[in-house]
Amino acid sequence: MNLSHIRNFSIIAHIDHGKSTLADRMLEVTHTIEARKMRDQVLDSMELERERGITIKMQPVRMMHTVDGTEYVLNLIDTPGHIDFSYEVSRSLKAVEGSILLVDCTQGVQAQTLTTLHMAQESGLTIIPVLSKVDSPLARKDEVRDEIMQVLKCKKEDIREVSGKTGEGVLDLLTYIVKTVPHPQSTYTGPQDIRALIFDFEYSNHQGVILYTRILDGSIKKNDQLVFAESKEKFFVHELGVFRPGKIETDGLSSGEIGYIVTGIKQPGIARVGDTVTLFKKPLPAFPGYQEPRPLVFASLYPESQDDFTLLKSSIMRLKLSDSSFTFEEESSGALGRGFRCGFLGMLHLEIITERLRREFNLELIVTTPSIHYDIHFKNDKVERVYSPVYFPDHGNYVKCFEPWTNMQIITPIDYISPIMQLLYEHEAETGETEVFGDNRMAIHVKMPLRELMRNFFDELKSATSGYASVSYELAEMREAFVERIDILVADELVPAFSKVVSSRRVQEECENAVEKLYKVLPQELFVVKIQARAHGRIVASRSLKALRKDVTGYLYGGDITRKMKLLEKQKKGKKKMLGRGKVHIEHDVFMKMMKQE
Predict the structure, then answer these.
(1) Is residue 188 in some structural domain?
(2) 161 and 59, same structural domain?
(3) Are strands 70-78 and 6-12 parallel, antiparallel or unpaired?
(4) Which of 132, 165, 298, 430 is positioned for an S-S bond with 447, CB 3.0–4.6 A?
(5) Is 38 left (phi over 0), alpha (psi -120 to 50) or beta?
(6) Does 538 fall in a domain?
(7) Which helix (H) or strand (E) holds 185?
(8) Are residues 266 and 339 both part of a single domain?
(9) In 147-238, which ranges are E strands?
(10) Do 444 and 575 share a structural domain?
């Protein structure tokens, strides 16, 4: 195929700015999908995506558009807008030459959009600014246009206007893409010079791993033997083709094209986003910029019933085949049984994985409180990285502890500055410079411990600003952490599942809250149960759960009072004996209630 007739582009947009709706209209006006098969969010194939109105999985599509009598191939990659998936987005931006910056003219430029925009600019992409939802009665076109001009340093006439709902301006936008986005170019031109970038992949029971690739150099045909540059695993091409938007098999894929390759591989961990495939006989150097996705949030997953452990294991393996960014390792807990310690890209990623396990594999799960990693420095100069609160050393057993911090940007209407500042103080943040961002909005630069970001910060920010603020963050340096491990003891026995690491200044509050929660959900026993929270080597909070009282004299009637006194005395001695040796079996539903309340 002639390289000059191909245009590859993606859409950068915040969640709910109309990205999927604009993609729908593009498919409609280019007649890629028949009108009778058209539905809303056609590129969002997952039920979870359609339900929540967010893009989780990238979805490429190939469209044909004619300009001045010449037919052009337009390859669109629909990317996730959430900050958790920024690495996948960065790889998909490497697969294209241009990007549409889509901004909702009722809301303006958001923080997460800026993060992705900077990635696109660093990749040298041609940026096309576009205002969406221009037909809305709430549209603030002039204000938002000024914001875009401030961010991109562009002219007013460079900004396109579209409506995904009515289709207004979509055809003009496609023509503008053909005229402004440069066509792809090849670095290597030899007959056996083959190189393709993996920007996503999926798993099929019958076909194994299916790679979503942008062909950088050469052309790939069926039965070619290729090799992964990072994992060094080789495979034969079983099938290949393009997305329209379903998979259409073709004879081959050549330089500049975007399509899929069926590998037949059925082991997890071999295919990775950002890796390069090249010809096994004559391997070319990998495309630069590959990174291993780094999990930021850790949580343990346990099946509600231990009978489902094998199902949970096979389900996690299946998900790993289509999502290489989350990690897992087997672990066991005396209270919860066998489960898995998993690493996720962020809180949304954790939510999506657990929801998929529940829906797609019919599993009932117990999810422990999310945590982060800490670097512990001991007296003998040994440094250990700890992922779970259970393994965090006791106070006094280590010299220093370090934790990851984040650089964050919050864009908010000026009216909400005061509640945001209060919220940032509560979450131990350091506020940096602030700048005016368009009319009536401010951008605040903040540094915050990742630990505090996971402590319900996003929900609290949304609540404090009525949903008007947007936030983006990136991992920064490691800093010394002033934290403590809290242990919960029930009847003088430690319950590891309830342990957590919290800020030193919030130890008292966290201990009291944990004890109070457990006091409310723990069933009574036949003896008094002490519930205690321990931190800093001492008991910080304590409550006693009264014994379940049985009326041992209920069957007596009449007679001498001493008969009743004897029975009551006997019961008293029995309770005293149990107090020393009684053990509490904590049921699964108690763990679930504690985790859910978190």
Answers:
(1) no
(2) yes
(3) parallel
(4) 430
(5) beta
(6) yes
(7) none
(8) no
(9) 160-161, 195-204, 208-217, 219-221, 225-228, 234-236
(10) no
How much is the mean pLDDT over the chain? 84
Return the pLDDT at 421: 93
Q: Looking at 279, 306, 339, which one is the last position of a domain? A: 279
pLDDT in tens, 84-110: 667 777 778 888 999 999 888 888 888
In sequence order, the β-bridge partners of residue 473 are 408
pLDDT for residue 114: 81
Which residues are CB-neighbours of 510 under 8 A, at least 6 positions away? 486, 500, 502, 533
pLDDT of residue 579: 61
Structural domain including 310 reads 297-367
Judgement on whether residues 394 and 418 belong to the same structural domain of the protein: yes
CATH number of residue 588's parent domain? 3.30.70.2570
Residues 151 and 204 in one domain: no
Domain stop point among 342, 367, 392 = 367
Q: Is 341 helix (H, G, I), strand (E, B) or coil?
A: strand
**The pair of three-digit structure tokens given for residue 207, joined into one six-digit string:** 């076909």
Asked if pLDDT for residue 39 goes beyond 80, the answer is: no
Q: How far apart are CA 275 and CA 253, in angstroms?
A: 18
Q: How far is CA 571 from CA 87, 128, 566, 576, in A?
A: 65, 81, 9, 9
Q: Quick: pLDDT tens for 339-350.
A: 898 888 887 788
Judge if 361 and 396 occupy the same domain: no
Q: Looking at the domain assignment, is residue 186 inside a domain?
A: no
Q: Kind of pairing, strands 195-204 and 239-243?
A: unpaired
Angle at 589 between CA 374 and CA 457, to 5 degrees: 40
Whether residue 268 is found in the same domain as residue 217: yes
| Number of domains, the chain | 5
On whether residue 285 sits in a domain, the answer given is no
Strand partners, 541: 533
Report which of residues 181 and 20 the model is more confident about. 181
> What is the b/e burial string over 122-160, where b = at least 16 CB atoms within 10 angstroms of the residue's CB?
eeebbbbbbbbbbbeeebbeeebbebbbebbebeeeebb
Q: Is the peptide bond before 245 cis (omega within 30 degrees of 0)?
A: yes
299 Cβ contact partners less than 8 Å away, ≥ 6 residues apart: 341, 342, 344, 350, 367, 368, 369, 370, 371
Least confident piece of the model among 36-45, 115-124, 190-199, 229-238 = 36-45
Chain centre distance of CA 122: 23
**pTM listed for this prediction:** 0.76
